[in-house]
Every structure is written in structure tokens, then in C-alpha cells.
């Protein structure tokens, strides 16, 4: 009985030594970012939700009401990150589009950071399965300056199909603020032109 106890204690000790000596595997780390874009446009209102998930080089994304109303798109991409004074994240993607519009889309997202300046741009070429006449180039770009870590302002331009005007490119001003993992940004588009509208964007990282 005593020998069995000693053997058990010895085995437990050996296992503990090996457990301490072996490096612990890093747990999988995901980064999530949820957005809700509220479009307040003349005689209309709609919400464009967007969800992003990143794990190291892998980038996943889901959008609704982006390529068209009542249309969902799912994306997969690869993150290239680097830089020193100029930090960059470049993500080529491929998306599938289903709903009122059906097709596929190669896309690209780019973020450049230099000191307190940030350029973010995303674009895609939507390829419709039904007709080549429905092919469309989508784009969205923000150029901002951050005087503090929680405040930023700048200019923005976008080209999306869900809201089109006489202007080929919707352009405007933006200002945003961050509180912990929350960000709130207000866009004022087409000021001084026809069909001005407001976009309120809310996002949370977790």
C-alpha cells in the first residue's frame, strides 16, 4: 500500500516537472469589430451593419445592405501588416454576395498610419451573376487626423449603390470620438450640393 502511494506521488511529480518545462501553447486570439452605419437620407433611412473577425493573418467579414438592399455578403481575406514610421495593414479579400443581388466580388482594404494621420480605404468590384450591366465599383475612403487618442476628424468619400445621387462620388466631412472599446463617428456628405445626407457610425471592438 505504501509502495503504491510512493509510486503515485513519484509519477505525479514527474508529470508536474514535464508540465512546467513544456512551453504553454498560446491560446487562439480573435479580434472582433462590430459596426452599425445609420444612413439618414432625404425621405429614407436604412442601416448597414458590418462585422469583422481577425485571427493573425486571417480576416473574415460580413456585410448587409452594402452591395444592395436586403443583400448579404461574406468575405475572407489575408492580412499583411508591417511598417515602422508608416504602419500599414493591407487585406486582399474575396466575397460572395447573395440576396436581392447575387454575385461575387474581389476586394481590398488598406489602412495607413503615419504619426497622427490615418488613411483608410476599401474597395470592391461587384460581379453580378445575372448581367454584366450590373457590375459595379464600390469604394469608401477616410482621411483623418487625431489631435488626441480619443478624437479624430477629416474628410470622406464613398461610392455605393444603395444610395446614389447626381454625384458619382459622395464626399463630405467627418468627426469621431472613442470611449474605451466604442467609437462614434458622424459623417456629413454632399454639403453644398444636391441630396446632402448624414451617416452615423457606431462600432465596438471586443
UniProtKB/TrEMBL annotation:
Q: What is this protein called?
A: Outer membrane protein beta-barrel domain-containing protein
Q: Which UniProt keywords apply?
A: Signal
Q: In its keyword annotation, does this UniProt entry include Signal? A: yes
Top-level taxon: Bacteria
Q: Signal sequence: where?
A: 1-19
The answer on whether this UniProt entry bears the keyword Signal reads yes
Amino acid at each position: 500500500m505504501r509502495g503504491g502511494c510512493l509510486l503515485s506521488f513519484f509519477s505525479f511529480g514527474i508529470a508536474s516537472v514535464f508540465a512546467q518545462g513544456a512551453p504553454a501553447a498560446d491560446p487562439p486570439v480573435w479580434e472582433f469589430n462590430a459596426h452599425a452605419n445609420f444612413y439618414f437620407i432625404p425621405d429614407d433611412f436604412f442601416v448597414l451593419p458590418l462585422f469583422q473577425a481577425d485571427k493573425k493573418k486571417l480576416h473574415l467579414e460580413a456585410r448587409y445592405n452594402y452591395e444592395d438592399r436586403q443583400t448579404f455578403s461574406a468575405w475572407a481575406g489575408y492580412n499583411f501588416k508591417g511598417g515602422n514610421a508608416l504602419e500599414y495593414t493591407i487585406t486582399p479579400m474575396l466575397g460572395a454576395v447573395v440576396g436581392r443581388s447575387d454575385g461575387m466580388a474581389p476586394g481590398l482594404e488598406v489602412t495607413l498610419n503615419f504619426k497622427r494621420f490615418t488613411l483608410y480605404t476599401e474597395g470592391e468590384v461587384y460581379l453580378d451573376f445575372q448581367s454584366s450591366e450590373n457590375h459595379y465599383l464600390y469604394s469608401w475612403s477616410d482621411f483623418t487626423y487625431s489631435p488626441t487618442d480619443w478624437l479624430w476628424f477629416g474628410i470622406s468619400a464613398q461610392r455605393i449603390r444603395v444610395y446614389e445621387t447626381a454625384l458619382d462620388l459622395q464626399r463630405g466631412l467627418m468627426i469621431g470620438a472613442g470611449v474605451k472599446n466604442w467609437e462614434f463617428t458622424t459623417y456629413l456628405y454632399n454639403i453644398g450640393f444636391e441630396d446632402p445626407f448624414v451617416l452615423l457610425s457606431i462600432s465596438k471592438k471586443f
